[in-house]
Amino acid sequence: MLKLQPLFSISSNRFNKNMPGAQWPLIKGRRTCITLLLLICVADLINFSSAWMPDVRPDLQTKQDKILAKIVGNTTDYFKILDHDDKTILVGARDVIYNISINGLRENNRIEWSSSAADRELCALKGKRESDCHNYIRVFARLPNDMIMVCGTNSYKPRCRNYEPVVDEVHPNAPITYAVVDDVEAQGKCPYSPVHNSTYAYADGSLYSATVADFSGGDPLIYRDRENLRTEQYDLKQLNQPDFVGAIERNGYVMFFFREIAMEFMNFGKTIYSRVGRVCKNDRGGRNTLSKTWTSFLKARLNCSVPGDYPFYFDEIQAISPVIESGPNALVYAIFTTSVNAIPGSAVCAFNIDDIMEAFEGRFRSQKDSQSQWLPVQENQVPEPRPGQCVPDSRTLSSIAVNFVKNHPLMESSVPSVFGRPLLKKVHLLHRLTSIAVDPQVQALNGDFHDVIYAGTDDGKITKFINIPTASSGATYDDESDIKTVFISELQVLPLGIPVREMVVSSKSNTLLVVSDGTIVTVPLHHCAHIVDCASCLSLQDPNCAWDQQTHECKSLSFSNHKFGTKSFLQSLNSTKKAAKSLCPKSSNRGTVIADGPVLNFGAPIDNNVDPQINTQHNPEEELARKHVYTNVASVNGIPTIGNDINSPGIEIPTAVGGDFLNVFNDENKITLQSVDPHDLMNSVNDPLQSTAIGEEQKLQLAGKSFYWGFGALALALVFIIGMVVGLHVSKRNCKPPSIHSSHRNQFNANPTFGLKHGKDINLLMNTNHYCHPGKPSLDLEKDRSHECKNSTENLEKELPCKTSTLTKVKRTYI
Questions:
Q1: What is the chain's percent helix, strand, coil content, to nearest 5?
Q2: Share of residues in the chain with pLDDT > 70 (%)
Q3: Do residues 233 and 186 make contact, with C-beta atoms less than 8 angstroms apart?
Q4: Which of 191, 219, 241 is the last residue of a domain?
Q5: In a domain? residue 773
Q6: In a domain, 800, yes or no
């Protein structure tokens, strides 16, 4: 039987020594190519593995936003916003509540309330840390007659106090002081831990709280102090390990937003759903044994998902905004994330109050037993009046209606998000969204109103965006194709790794107040003054900013004396960024760069006595520099001062407004007009002592880009060279060149440098001596064979002086 030798052998002799010499270069080339391809693929995989990018990119990014004012405390202060207006803000902290002015973060007043030594000692004996055994103020409410109610954790023994103002008749201008009127326990009103996710709402003289009622946190409840109404204790159908994020009052109801373990999914596994629950403000409980139980508590799922045949859900709600009156609609904006062990993703969804109310008017959902599926309840099984609706006196309800609400709190329909999809989606490995604030109904230049949304992240960034209708003026909130998200900016406000807990928008003072566990800062709402050319101003698509064609500046509409609809300003929100840039007149390409020093005109200082528009020489080099300035830079990173004249026109000098608190100003704003990676900006270093002109700055930027391209090309060349070297080394190590004896020709006339020319030249009788044991030296045997091969016909009739094998017979027969 004919046996074929494999090209590669598993034995220690890697290759067959009898392999034809012509096969060796081919195999050697294949192995080299395979090695190179593998190395290149590995290099590409390494590059792609580090190329996770956000799904949307902002037009404005800074390394550090301009801090107007700052308060720095300890991370264990656990700052919490309790109340605010346009001028002041109340912040709860450890053993104190602050009244702070938003303009400059100056402390106006404070109320100190510490835990007693006995309460702190008892807290320590229960195994809590010393930092937890303090009184953290978590609840605040304004009572009639200028009284206030304050509740704190009080070293894991919550208490509430009522204060009344004390007027000093001798010193009427002195700060108002408060005296304690009442001091009571606050079980069910205030959380035990400062980090517990609790919320509350004060409506119609009653406190509605959502927290826990025990030291261990195992008894969650929704509670009202009047009538002491609460959800059913240890009833997983009503509350199953919830985390509360917010509460609002609307249309005779109080609504609570929270996330919890989904009971309807327990038969398939364990997952978390976001919910909205509601109770009637006039609920007075049931009769007899149900007198302390809600008769109106219902809940429904919040659906924040990417639509499709298989929707992608953002299941865990993190924060909500107050109710925003957006035209005829009342909206609640909310932050959602994926679970901690899933793909890191965040989204912002909006919910219409009318959609929430409609969900509670739908069918109920129930489970017959623990092994059954959750199914809709038939309409004929629902008692009258409909459970969950507000009635004049809930104590008149039948026990059947009250028990139905108790056993069927979940609605079948979920609450859809506005437009049927998230308003913003972010997939980022390094941060998630944590908080939200809304500047409602900001009027654009064309008279339209937009909600400007600010979303904070867990690494100190603030994301700003708006949503623009793209359909006709008759578009409704039901058509998901009628919306376009405009990602305006992403600014680094807090140090990396510091999460943004809460935010407050103050439109009158043009300030965004940002709160973390131990820091409070204020930053501008917009950065119009940092934009220096028309194209960049329009492509930013910020409703706060418009291009002034008379002064050639990007100005804030809130501070400009303009008339909506006038032609002296340019703004384009409903078009694409490219179309917005095309609206700029060619003559508006002149401008200046506002930096941390005098105004620079393409590397040369401007004479204060000369019009900057006239002090411009038109030459090709200057035009090239102008292109670089207007295309790549807004507030140039690290532009130095050429002179010390701080009175130069057009320069905006920051001033401290922080009073006695820490007022830290950071004028190192690096605002770029291109979508660049935020990590590249974070790694840039600004040296304020360096003195170069803007032309040199542009050269450095171009050199930096060339360096990165050159570095990439060099890395690719190194990978190619390394692959070649490794391939040759492996080939030489594992493969031996063919010996002269492995040729099919006679050794005396064979040419090892050439391959086989034709099949007829092959002498099939060669190499048959593997089965022979010649009795004379091998040299004589080879001479005899050479003599015999002179006449192939005669040689076939002769037999070798050895035993002939089957393979030899086949070869002879073939020839």
A1: 25, 30, 50
A2: 64
A3: no
A4: 191
A5: yes
A6: yes
Contact 531, 537 (CB under 8 A): yes
| Class of residue 247 by CB neighbours under 10 A (exposed 0-12, middle 13-18, buried 19+) | buried
> Residue 118 domain-assigned?
yes
In the three-class reduction of DSSP (H, G, I as helix; E, B as strand; rest coil), residue 405 is classed as helix
Maximum pairwise Cα distance, the chain: 142
Are the C-beta atoms of residues 178 and 111 closer than 8 Å to each other?
yes
* Token pair listed for 109: 């007043």
CA-wise closest residue to 300 among 336, 276, 316, 333: 276
Q: Which residues, including other chains, have CB under 8 Å from residue 637's CB and lie 6 or more apart?
A: 670, 684, 686, 697
Q: What angle (nearest 5°) sits at the alpha carbon of residue 710, between those of residues 708 and 713?
A: 110
Q: CA–CA separation, 350 vs 418, rounded Å?
A: 5
Structural domain includes residue 385? no
Question: Cα angle at 441 between 84 and 61, to 5 degrees?
Answer: 85
Distances (CA, A) of 703 to 285, 422, 671, 700, 707: 74, 41, 19, 5, 6
Do residues 261 and 241 touch, judged by C-beta distance below 8 A?
yes
Identity at 144, one-letter amino acid code: P
pLDDT digits (tens, 9 = 90+) for 457-509: 999 999 999 998 775 444 444 444 578 889 999 989 999 999 999 999 998 88
Pick the more confident residue, 327 or 45. 327
Whether 213 shows a pLDDT value over 50: the answer reads: yes
Task: Tell which wins on pLDDT, 157 or 483.
Answer: 157
Around Cβ 511, how many Cβ atoms within 10 Å? Answer: 21
- 545-555 per-position pLDDT tens digit: 999 888 888 98
Q: What's the half-sphere exposure (Cβ side, CA atoms, 13 Å) at 50?
A: 7
Q: Give the model's confidence band at 674: pLDDT under 50 very low, under 70 low, under 90 confident, else very high.
A: very low
Q: Which two tokens mark 291?
A: 């007198």
Question: pLDDT confidence of 346, banded at 50, 70, 90?
Answer: very high
pTM over 0.85: no
Check residue 328 and give its pLDDT: 85
Residue 426 corresponds to which amino acid? K
Distance CA 408, CA 401 (A): 10
**Residue ending a domain, choose from 141, 165, 191:** 191
Find the range with the poorest average confidence among 321-330, 613-622, 720-729, 800-809. Answer: 613-622
With bands split at pLDDT 50, 70 and 90, how would you rate the model's confidence at 801?
A: very low
Mean pLDDT of 270-299: 94
**pLDDT tens digits for range 707-753:** 567 777 888 888 888 888 887 777 777 655 554 444 444 444 444 44
The encoded tokens of residue 556 equal: 């804030």
Neighbours of 415 (CB within 10 A): 24
Phi, psi of 734 (to 5 degrees): -95, -15
Alpha helices by DSSP H, listed for 574-693, are 577-582, 620-632, 678-682
Q: How far apart are CA 320 and CA 421, in angstroms?
A: 17
Nearest to 422 by CA among 316, 313, 323: 313
Whole-number Cα distances in Å, 690 to 6, 537, 687, 705: 69, 29, 6, 21
Range of the domain at 105: 77-191
Helix (H), strand (E) at residue 25: helix 23-49
**Per DSSP, what are the bridge partners of residue 407?**
none
317 CB burial (10 A radius; 0-12, 13-18, 19+):
buried
Query: What's the first-to-final CA gap in the chain, in angstroms?
Result: 17
pLDDT of residue 637: 33
Location of structure tokens 């004049």: 392
* Number of domains forming the structure of the chain: 2
Distance of alpha carbon 578 from alpha carbon 575, whole angstroms: 8
For residue 10, pLDDT over 60 is answered with no
Predicted pLDDT at 708? 62
Cβ atoms of residues 356 and 283 within 8 Å: no
- Angstrom distances, CA of residue 414 to CA of 304, 361, 733: 10, 11, 67
Q: Interhelix angle for 23-49 vs 694-734, to 10°?
A: 140
